[in-house]
Amino acid sequence: MSFSITTWNINSVRLRMPIIEKLVMQQQPDILCLQETKVINDLFPLAPLRAMGYEHIIIHGQKGYHGVAIASRIPLVEDHRQDFCGVGDARHISAIFERGGRRVRLHNFYVPAGGDEPDRTINPKFGHKLDFIEEMKQLHANAEPDTSAILVGDLNIAPLENDVWSHKQLLKIVSHTPVETEGLLEVIRGGAWVDLMRQTVPASEKLYTWWSYRAKDWEEANRGRRLDHIWGSADLGPLLQRIDILKEARGWDRPSDHVPVTAHFDL
DNA sequence: ATGGTCGTCTTACGA
Fold it and tell me: What protein family is recorded (predicted)?
């Protein structure tokens, strides 16, 4: 048995339906996790996703901002939303699925971007991001008995030196400041998560999932960051076949600034 | 060069 899961910050799900269809045609993931859907639940485009074979869809949206969704070809049970920082943002959705006799808890996150100034005393958005990361430290990969776990999403932090185009030049840029990168690594360590993308690509290699809209030529500049992540409980590590980062999707018509990341498992 | 370009609650603001 094989199983694949894709995470993609889509930056408006309604605007991106054409490239979501393109992704599904190419990759056919069993589960598709989206972030920044930017739409209330009543207006979420369920029909086209169902037409692509995703009959099990759970959504958590709000008007204009944030929003997460899980679209699955296998049944989802026990769906759950956690209101991180208690501010009512649609930034987390979770469900359980079963595959190959295994029970798996799936978390889909959209972590706050954190604004421009990496100082919580003058930038409340940065404080919110740090508080959100602090709350994520409660999240353990082995929290539930006889249940594996996968955590995906746009975590808006590039934790390792080679997760950004220039470690030195980005040390004071939100997404790569030491307080963020150390915080995210503590979430990983404390929760006994495995960074599955880095299990297959050594930390010495550059790895990006996001390229800014603002570059004149994103591909030529190649000033990317690894903001999107796929983590797993340790038992899933040996079952991982490969990770695909679909860089070409950054060049598709009306692209998101993030590209899809897909994990393939023997599961 | 402290810019640039996307998106939506669009002439403001978040990313």
Answer: Belongs to the DNA repair enzymes AP/ExoA family.
For residue A15, which nucleotide's C1' is closest to its Cα? B7
DSSP string, A130-143: HHHHHHHTT--TT-
CA distance A48 to A237: 33
Q: Which uninterrupted H or E stretch holds A85? A: none
Distance in Å, residue A196 CA to nucleotide B11 C1': 44
For A178-210, give one letter per residue: b (16+ CB within 10 A) or e: eebbebbeebbeebebbbbbbbebeeeeebbbb
Q: What is the pTM of this model?
A: 0.98
CA A153 to each of CA A60, A106, A209, A219: distance values in angstroms, whole numbers, following the listed order: 14, 11, 11, 23
The per-residue pLDDT for range A217-237, each reduced to its tens digit, is: 999 999 999 999 999 999 999
CA of A146 to C1' of B14 (A): 40
What are the residues whose beta carbons fall under 8 Å from the beta carbon of A214, sequence distance 6 or more?
Answer: none
Give CA–CA dist A153/A199, Å, rounded. 17
